[in-house]
Write the structure tokens for this entry.
Amino acid sequence: MREMTFTDAAREGLAEEMAQNPGIFVMGEGVGTRGGNFNTTVGLYDLYGPKRLRDTPICERGFTGLCTGAAMVGARPVVDFMFIDFELDAIGELFNQTSRIQYMSSGRLQMPILVRGSIGIFGSAGPHHSGNYYPLFMHVPGFRVVVPTTPADAKGLIKTALRSTDPVIFLEHKGLLFSKGPVPEGELLVPFGKASITREGTDVTVVAVALMVQKTLEAAKQLEQEGVSCEVIDPRTLAPLDVDTIRDSVHKTGRLLIVDEDWGPCGIGAEIAARIVDEAFDDLDAPIGRLNGAFAPTPYSPSLTAGMVPNAQTIAQAVRDLLAE
Amino acid sequence: MAFEVVMPRLGWTMETGTLIEWQKRDGDSVEPGDVLFTVESDKAVQEIEALERGILHVPPDSPPPGTEVEVGTVLAYLLQPGEPLPRQAQDAASRPPKVAVVPEASAEAPKPDTAAAAAMPSRPTTAISPRARRVARELGVAWESLTGSGRTGRIVERDVRRAFELARADETSRPPLREPEERDSLIPSSLPTPQFTRKATHEPVPAVTLTAGVDATELMRIRDQFGEAMGSPTSIRLACRDLLIKLSGLALQEHRTVNSVWQDGRILAAHDVNIAIEIGTKAGVVTPVIRDVPSTSILSLADQVSELTAKALLGQLEPADLQGGTFTIADLGEYGVDAFTPIIHWPQSAALGLGRITEKAVVRNGQIVPRYHMVLSLTFDHRVVDGGPAARFLDSVCGYVEKPSLWLVR
């Protein structure tokens, strides 16, 4: 099968959908001739021109509101934030308007909008360009929150997102953008709410998000040499969250660790832990473990940053600790 | 790795045990199955075997023989050659040994002390993971007696499965497997349920006693007939007690709430009627159990009573002899007592006291006639049984005593 980078696969998905659906347009800073800060739109300007690839000034709230209005009247906008950190400047529009319109109109209006941006601690991006923020969106009714980790999922999920009638938050970890993986030719749609078991195992279930899936797979290889069999689950979409797959895995293993680069409080780990305690209490042989990034803004310094995020060694140790519980 | 040698839980209600004697010395090599030490609990002495291989290390602060300690107290370690003591054992070395807490002091909640918790894996309420509890239920393993291998001494799934495999591999050293309990029925209780073991044992039980006089003439007649048939009538009191055990067992079948036991904070109306009998020994009162009284013949029952009495007097009762009682019968007739308040033995909820049998002048059909007479005293836990049902049970027993042959032919 052909190999592609994450970014190329996601862009292929966007291009295929734009070719099929003339209502799709992209708006953001540098998405036009520049092709996007992270190459999200490279080549598309040549095909579709400034009408469907609209560069904007630095005015997040303005163009987010504009796209929300466009979606209300039948267009299918893609808001490209480059860094999801900048979406914080548009939170008022997103939470109060974009997420609410369908409820407030009793479903008479739809909100087919795709909000995308890079997330994660990578490449000394510092405190303003390293956020994850998926728990913010999970917390608000109405949003779909998508966090792909492989090139194939990036393509399959962005295509599903571009056919959804709900607002979708599409988050791409900077540490994954240039990773390569097999992407099948032809139509590729990955459904929302279906987790991927990226490695099967019997001793412990590890749910990992975004870049942490790769780190966990490295840890699982180390642990295999020690005779520990890890099952690694990539939720792929955090809203809707595929609790069934995690629960079935915990039924098998009895132990659950959630690895998340993001801050711990009120995070994805807390949500998954509470859901599993609700639904699978009698399957648990140990307290549920959480491994998170340090609870502090991300520094520039590479050596400081390295100590703040989970890596294969710290994940492997967290698994060993959990097995000793 | 180092294995802890702890005071085992030999019976469901055992909370403390007395270390009698080490059978292996500090530094001895130990194989699984070797007898490590002897323990006295509930006045029975039992040999405790090693479950793991290693070199016995008895720390200086280990409780000396003769000390009564709580179940789960670490007595020693089995170490591999060259292996140092586990760190928590070294930390604990400066602390005095844990001795059994007297019941009065135990009313105070144990203070949280994480280091002590690590050194003493199984506290009075043994921790078990939800999964291990579920697996224990599925496999029928009585987990209360297991030692947990979790970081804090928690019993986890592997401990339950290991116990199950051990039991299957070696039928003789079977850890206690619990009988299925489907036949027992749960009595819904709106009462605050007692905490498991120690606390509930010593909590004041709202005990109520009912007494009823009963005509024992027919009972004495039956006893004499049995005595003749069996050859030499041995002890008059024993035979009458045997009959009363049997009759009470039959009555308990009809009044199952009186035959209730506390289990895991719930009240179970037990299906089986297992009657404990109080026997006074030099070392105090013991209560061995006669199982399934309703379907045990009088002859077999009398045999069991005399065998258990002999074992009790010789101090040879085994823990199994003392377990599983659902009701207690105490007999003070030979001491000339008419009526008294028998003690309820937790987790049971009632006990019957037998007074002396005396001849009395009774008016019957306008005539004064001599009749045998005795008083039965029923003490019950009012949280479990109400006065009405208790009185109906006592009335049933009296009815059976007055016309015993109707019931004994069953």
Remarks:
- The two ends of chain A are 42 Å apart (CA to CA).
